[in-house]
Sequence to fold (525 residues):
Amino acid sequence: MNTAGKAFLAAGVVTVAAVARRRRRTPAVQQADRWLVVTVNRSPDDVQSSLPDDLARWRDQIEISIRPATGDKGTELRAKPAGEVSHDDVRLALRKAKAVLEAGEVIQPDTAPTHPGPMGKVLQRVTSRAGGGGRL
Amino acid sequence: MKALCWEGINDVRVQDVPDPQLLNDQDMILKVRLSTVCGSDLHLLTGHIPFMQAGDVIGHEFMGEVVEVGPGVTRHRPGDRVVVCSFIACGRCWYCRNELYSLCDNTNTNPAITQHLWGADPGGIFGYSHAMGGFRGSHAEYVRVPFADHTAIPIPEAVDDMSALFTSDSAATGWMGADLGGVKQGDVVAVWGAGAVGQMAARAAQLLGAERVLLIDRFDYRLRQAESVFGVETINYAETSVGDALLEATGGRGPDVCIEAVGCEAHSTGPQYVYDQVKSKLKLETDRPIAVREAIYNCRKGGSVFVLGVFTGVVDKFPLGALMNKGLTVRGAQQHGQRYIPMLLDRIASGDLATNHLATHVMPLSEGARGYELFKKKEDECVRSVFRL
Fold:
């Protein structure tokens, strides 16, 4: 493996290990029970009256709570999966809802390179799921 | 179209890539006129930032002419001459509303990567890895500009293309270091790094009222350039003890504000350089924070340190004791360009701020690989290579 490959591999291992460590530390019950939250820079009334489709379509499978954010930072839009919907799906829906409410649309990624190479393909698989991962 | 692509470590080549398309209503397509290399690109070239794919178009500091706008763009139209901030900003999230544009909540399409690495995701940036959104860069004939109303800024007629180019990133970054570093009338300011960002930070400090500005580097040609263009004082750290020189220049106090404009692959002359090289090779630290350590150590009691250089992960021997016991304020940021670019363009127009001397090597995009080679190896007194398209 060349130096680039080693660098990619090292970064991937570090990131995966960090996620795994965090998951090991978090009891499953606590993870399932907690709210996933984004803060939207709009008033609670605005958020309540114009909940974007990305989130509204899950309404029968998630609990939704809307409350003012502290310090005049807008509105906390909270969602908790209650049915078959996954945490990743809810995270992605919350992020999209926030983007639509704040900026009017969800920014689309640029088209991927045509010849990413083996390590680039691995990275493409990671980034294809990145919208629903991460911390919320 | 032609574009300069990252093809692997220390391997950039001009390739044919598909033309960009409007993907969102608030996008526009820009015909790039000028695009410059940046010191932070070198971290991509060396593989220091590993989230790259072969074929990624690099480049993030640029200006050009609008050729197509989406239906949601209201501030620009085809034919307009604009400079584009390297950070993409939605303009409406809490961070953008508070002029912290590089922290935009809505522009990083891959938030999970940096959320795991840093706890939260900064905004998206052109041509700067898939950790920062994977957007195509500006070393290309055309580039898609998302959220164009908030990411691109019109260039006044009185400002030429080359001068405007450097407001895209280096001048805005430098100004931010002096501004958020808290430079006040009568201050003594030390700046580590005499590249484009460091020179711009030094000039910003002068314009914000600093009485003395000292610029630190190891390349005489860069120090001479800053001396002649801006009249700053200089310290060559390869020849002079930085600590002694700063104490002498400040009556034994140390600088009021220290600005670091070097980044994660810093050089030095002492044993700590060897130490950091070994640690980073063994992956026991990701970055070499030599200039940050020096800035914290040499700053006056109660002073301020601002970190402008790009860092990626964790460092060793961070002088937390000096920070705490001297009562320092330490801040850092990627650039909030939208906050400064209009003002910088006005200052260029009025003659307050010179930037075009930074373009020491202007060449066509077809010579992109040579441009990076000159820049990386500091050959032929290169400060910045600029590609004309």
Q: What stands out?
A: Chain B touches chain A through 51 residues (CB under 8 Å). Chain B has two domains: 2-169+335-388, 173-332. The longest strand of chain B covers residues 28-36.
